[in-house]
Specification:
The chain is an all-alpha fold. The protein is about 75% helix and about 0% strand.
Length: about 230
């Protein structure tokens, strides 16, 4: 597999680069989504208190909403890519991801300045906003799970390489960012204080950068026109 890297053309390297940036954006959310809800929205600590546990459960409910939106978006994916182009859809989805992570940072700031009162529960508006963000993130996650694989497979096929090999090459660009985020997010959060906001700030920057590169540099694949019989 590693020997094939020298045969990869520039467009494939570009897709691998955007994939790596995209997953640098995704992994902090995947690692800390429910912890963020329990710690920064509900104001709890992972030591068994009820606020943190309630927040984690609410975060799990948000992930269920995320899965529902992901499934709906997956059904519409082919038509969207045919109409707008795979690279454009990928870029727009990453910009949406950036806006969602930015909104999470804003919610974290608002929650830190609020006094929840005697009931120790966050306002309903704050919780609903967090759940909406979780749900919206299902759209770019559906794109991340499908479009990069389709783009790499279509470009490697012309080189005479097998599809399984193309998946292996793409997975390398996913695993390496995962290792970097897994090893670095903890010390990075400690450097700027406890909480998940520093990791989400890095995720937002990576998502925005990957979105711009995908929109500007990845060619839009034109939909195939139906052949007219004479």
């Amino acid at each position: 597999m590693f020997g094939t890297f020298k045969y990869l053309p520039g467009p494939v390297w570009l897709i691998l680069f955007v994939t790596s940036l995209t997953w640098i954006g995704w992994f902090p959310f995947i690692l800390f989504d429910t912890d963020w809800m329990g710690r920064e929205i509900y104001g709890g600590y992972p030591n068994g208190d009820h606020k943190y546990s309630d927040g984690v459960r609410m975060g799990a409910f948000g992930l269920m909403l995320n899965s529902v939106i992901l499934g709906i978006t997956s059904v519409l994916m082919e038509n969207l890519c045919r109409k707008w182009g795979s690279g454009f859809i990928w870029g727009i989805s990453n910009i949406i991801m950036f806006l969602c992570f930015l909104a999470m940072l804003v919610l974290s700031i608002l929650a830190s300045k609020m006094d929840y009162g005697s009931d120790d529960f966050p306002p309903n508006g704050l919780v609903i906003a967090a759940l909406v963000i979780f749900a919206i993130l299902g759209m770019p996650l559906a794109v991340t799970y499908s479009v990069p694989y389709a783009l790499v497979a279509s470009r490697i096929e012309s080189l005479g390489l097998v599809q399984g090999l193309s998946m292996g090459v793409l997975n390398v660009s996913i695993v390496l960012p995962q290792v970097v985020v897994s090893l670095g997010s903890g010390p990075w959060d400690q450097l700027f204080g406890e909480g998940n906001s520093p990791a989400f700030a890095v995720a937002a920057v990576a998502a925005f950068a990957s979105g711009l590169v995908a929109i500007l540099a990845i060619p839009r694949s034109r939909p195939e026109q139906p052949k007219i019989r004479q």
